[in-house]
Design the sequence.
């Protein structure tokens, strides 16, 4: 079905090498050829079949073939594929000239389809692995926030629906999202990366040292050395505590000053947004499951000042899945 | 950076153009302005007849977009330059160059050194000038045009930035950009800006401007990004976000008790936050048909 061996560059690799497409992973053909992965996409993309053929570098089928043939071919494409391609090549060439305008439509459909498959692919084992390699090479840039000190970011969407918003960069260090610095990314659809990939990445690679700067090489031995240097790892709700927003907290919150004096929050122009960049000094303050336990709650009461009231308000029963790295908050619990 | 000195004939003497004001202009000293003055008072240029070659060249050079033009009146008042003579090599020559009265015949290396000193001197005076009434108004104009760029944080919706330093001493930290909407600081996008000394803007200017022009204070937003996996919040970040929201509510309660305007867009609905949080819990589907409606 694929002709990638014959052509110097596949549609996929040329798409990914376009200016502005630097964030995209190259989806493996195996992934695209598994129908399960494409479930529901045929209704979302115009000229779905043509778009899919374009992505996989399959020559378009002959229009003049009668309907019976067409349907038959659809049934056992994989067997007859190669033969059919050769047979139809001459006819297809003629057809190319005739429907040059159709091709641009197919091209944009193919880009849309690729993007939507991409959203799913980068959440698969193979896809997230490929994205982690790009992350290590800082292909997605670094956080613009000064206190995040050049940590690497991840491309994300704010919506899973195409046409809503452009791609953004998620910083795992401050848990915020930013507009990519280069305007060429401001035409890339955020849905092609989706909302899930960024957070899923954090949970999939808990051993990454997220505070490493963009220009540092993480290297292949990263998990080994990272695990070795701190022995027992502090956990918070299934995440390594040192990876929960390391760019936030004391010393990493901007404090407005005038001639060395802090601007009081009582001033009209006083600070109002400090909370956005705060993090408790003791990260275990956030471990609600631990706090629910009566012993812990009593012993911690004296050590917390600001957090305690809000935490009490939100205290809930401990969760069954609290220790799993894949744990997510179930609906309505929060 | 191309040297201006290569563009001006070597022995040109333009000392005659030195313009000394009959008396000190009223607002040149770098004291903290207490309230916004009527800007119309300062629209009459006192030195507009005198072209400022060096300063014109400097502020229009690529990479110097963050600087405003310092008035000649300000530069020629020695009081404003107090202490800078020890900070700047060849101080007098550098000052002569900045004020277009430089007429030393010297070799190119020396000229380059003096040129460098002049840029440093300009930057150090700039930090003082931009907290004067006139300087603030010039920087305000640039801010309104977003000459300093826009906040990269998505939730800040391209709010314009202001240049700032993390230190008032030179050679400590490069210039950063302050967003008054999220009250955080960011690195300039371009490397030609990230090499500028932060001391040329100082630690106070970007805060003073909002004291002088309180109407400029942007409405603060509680809108934020919430990490989700297939529509579900992730435990650890969600716990942190809840804790941060507690901090925010505490602040709003403190301000309310003091009857101070919190400045948030949705003031008066502290408890609405939690409800909104719950509403935002939308289950994702493979097709991703829903868009989370986060407050
Ligand atoms: Zn960050
Ligand atoms: Zn901002």
Sequence:
């Amino acid at each position: 079905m694929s002709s990638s061996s014959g052509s110097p560059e596949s549609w996929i690799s040329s798409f990914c090498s376009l200016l502005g497409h630097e964030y995209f992973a190259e989806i493996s053909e195996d992934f695209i050829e598994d129908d399960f992965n494409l479930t529901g996409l045929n209704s979302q993309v115009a000229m779905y079949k043509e778009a899919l053929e374009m992505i996989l570098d399959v020559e378009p089928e002959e229009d003049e073939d009668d309907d019976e043939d067409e349907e038959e071919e659809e049934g056992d494409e994989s067997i007859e594929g190669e033969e059919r391609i050769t047979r139809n090549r001459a006819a297809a060439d003629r057809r190319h000239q005739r429907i040059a305008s159709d091709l641009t439509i197919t091209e944009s459909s193919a880009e849309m389809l690729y993007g939507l498959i991409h959203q799913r692919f980068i959440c698969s084992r193979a896809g997230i692995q490929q994205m982690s390699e790009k992350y290590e090479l800082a292909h997605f840039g670094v956080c613009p926030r000064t206190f995040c000190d050049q940590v690497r970011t991840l491309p994300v969407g704010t919506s899973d629906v195409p046409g809503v918003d452009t791609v953004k960069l998620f910083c795992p260090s401050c848990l915020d999202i930013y507009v990519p610095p280069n305007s060429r990314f401001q035409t890339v659809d955020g849905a092609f990366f989706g909302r899930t990939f960024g957070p899923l990445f954090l949970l999939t690679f808990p051993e990454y040292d997220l505070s490493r700067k963009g220009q540092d090489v993480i290297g292949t031995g990263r998990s080994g050395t990272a695990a070795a240097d701190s022995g027992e790892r502090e956990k918070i709700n299934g995440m390594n505590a040192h990876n929960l927003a390391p760019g936030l907290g004391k010393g990493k919150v901007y404090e407005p000053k005038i001639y060395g004096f802090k601007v009081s929050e009582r001033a009209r122009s006083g600070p109002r947004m400090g909370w956005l960049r705060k993090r408790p000094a003791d990260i275990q303050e956030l471990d609600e499951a631990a706090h629910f336990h009566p012993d812990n709650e009593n012993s911690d009461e004296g050590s917390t000042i600001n957090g305690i009231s809000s935490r009490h308000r939100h205290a809930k029963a401990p969760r069954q899945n609290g220790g799993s790295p894949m744990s997510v908050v179930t609906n309505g619990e929060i | 950076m191309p040297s201006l000195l290569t563009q001006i004939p070597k022995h040109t003497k333009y000392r005659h153009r030195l313009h000394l004001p009959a008396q000190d202009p009223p607002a040149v000293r770098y004291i903290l302005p207490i309230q916004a003055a009527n800007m119309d008072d300062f629209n009459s240029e006192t030195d507009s007849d005198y072209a400022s070659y060096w300063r014109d060249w400097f502020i229009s050079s690529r990479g110097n977009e963050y600087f405003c033009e310092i008035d000649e009146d300000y530069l020629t008042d020695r009081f404003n330059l107090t202490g800078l003579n020890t900070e700047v090599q060849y101080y007098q020559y550098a000052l002569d160059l900045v004020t277009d009265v430089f007429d030393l015949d010297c070799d190119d290396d020396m000229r380059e050194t003096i040129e460098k000193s002049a840029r440093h001197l300009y930057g150090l005076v700039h930090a003082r000038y931009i907290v004067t009434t006139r300087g603030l108004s010039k920087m305000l104009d640039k801010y309104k045009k977003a000459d300093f760029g826009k906040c990269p944080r998505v939730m800040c919706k391209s709010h314009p930035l202001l240049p700032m330093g993390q230190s008032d001493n030179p050679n400590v930290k490069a210039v950063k950009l302050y967003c008054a909407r999220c009250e955080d600081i960011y690195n300039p996008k371009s490397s030609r800006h990230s090499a500028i000394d932060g001391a040329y803007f100082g630690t106070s200017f970007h805060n003073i401007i909002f004291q002088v022009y309180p109407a400029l204070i942007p409405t603060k937003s509680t809108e934020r990004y919430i990490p989700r996996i297939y529509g579900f919040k992730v435990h650890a970040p969600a716990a942190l976000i809840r804790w941060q929201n507690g901090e925010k509510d505490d602040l709003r309660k403190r301000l309310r008790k003091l009857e101070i305007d919190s400045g948030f867009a949705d003031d008066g609905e502290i408890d609405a936050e939690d409800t909104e949080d719950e509403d935002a819990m939308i289950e994702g589907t493979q097709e991703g048909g829903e868009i989370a409606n986060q407050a």
Summary: The domain at 146-216 of chain B is CATH 2.20.25.20 (N-terminal domain of TfIIb). Chain B has a mean pLDDT of 80.
